[in-house]
Amino acid sequence: MSDGPAASRAALATETWRAIRADQRAARETLTDRWIVLAAGTLLVLMLLYVLIGNKPYVHEVALDPLTGATEMSPINRYIWLALGALSVPLLWLRRGDLIVAFRQLWPLLLLLAWFALTTRWALDPAASSRRLLLYGVNVAICVAVAVGLRDMRRAHMAMAIACAIVVAIDMASWIIIPGRSMTPLGLAAIHSHKNTLGAVMLLAGFVCGTYAWGQAHWRGRLFWWAVTVCAIALLIASRSKTSLGIFFALAAFTPAFVLVLRRRPIEIVGVAALIGFGITLLLFGWLGYAYAVGMDPIDPVRGVTFTQRTDVWAFVYQQAAQHPVGGVGFGSLWDVNPQVQPSLQTDYWFARPDAFTNEAHNGYLDIAATTGLVGLAGALFLLGRWMLRGVLLLRAEAIAVPTDRAGLAAAMALGIFPLLMFGHNWMESSYWTANSIFGTIILAVGIQMDLTWARRSAGAA
């Protein structure tokens, strides 16, 4: 009779001990997860700060290597990327359980990197090509570590907003304190190398901080982040970067209208798309009819447009792509290569210097075609199209969610629309898969984050 109560007390004590141990284990896991999130967010902020500021602050003149004629290679760049890559290793180890899912979701990206690696075998400058691909591989590893560490688009949005706010503060202080050093004959450059760089940075900062301000729950947060957004717009205007200015104000008008459309029923969305397509077709045929009626060449008004001499560079890069249509001249092996490796490249036109130094095609799709061929271009377009589609679908999911998560919708706007922004910006600037490009780095972070978010939501729905 006495064994029964004693056994019950022992069983109760065992269950209590197990419950306490489980609670302690859960508390440790929660604390570890918080530290991982903090580390991943810090890594994303550090990476963005380096990408947005660069390794040569206030250097507004391009330094050319007297032996090669190309821009000087900075060893600091590779050391910083390798240091950031080293910081990502602990995150990858602690989240190693998520890496299998990540690799399954990122198969188009991995296949594209494999093709890029193959093109280094026939690159014009194999050393430069391999080095740039290696650093891009480090970049991808960092973005994967950040994505598996944060596990939430809202956290990624917050880290991006913090990095942008820091850069806005630095540039605004530079403009106020040392205006003479911050201003160039073409426009405000502040701490950056060129006024177009400042324009691209403030385009990003205005969009990211503006959406983050909209997503704030309290008025103090909204006031602060709207103030940051206004400062970013002021710097953008002072930069006189026409491309970034046009894209920003178009984006400011497009984003709320796009979210309103996505909140409608699918049949209504299809109707709006059909109406827009019909309107564009009507305008096109109307113009052709008018040109025919007055006996004018329909393309005559745009025949002399050079987009600030971009068309000359486009023609040159198109010629290079046509000479190597399948495999290109090797990843990262078109601009800033050593002409001594290929003496036939020792021409002024190769470096596109009719009036100013240019080391890109000012069209990322042409650069991809010239360096990695039609295979690389097809893979890059598929990957970007996939990110664009998933961004729109994730944004629609947040837009129709009940109740509306304001912070979640703001994050979906920033990350979901950025691939669309990238698609448009890359027509006039070489950003996509261009070494040390601001938008080229951020699209990797955003795209990988969306892919893993898509995987988690698909697993939750199943």
UniProtKB/TrEMBL annotation:
Domain O-antigen ligase-related: 228-379
Coiled-coil regions listed: none
GO cellular component, one term: membrane
Pfam families tied to this protein: Wzy_C (PF04932)
Cellular localisation: Membrane
Keywords linked to the UniProt accession: Membrane, Transmembrane, Transmembrane helix
Domain of life: Bacteria
Ranges that cross the membrane: 35-53, 76-94, 106-124, 130-150, 157-178, 198-215, 222-239, 245-262, 269-293, 364-385, 406-424, 430-448
UniProt-recorded name of the protein: O-antigen ligase-related domain-containing protein
Originating organism: Caulobacter mirabilis
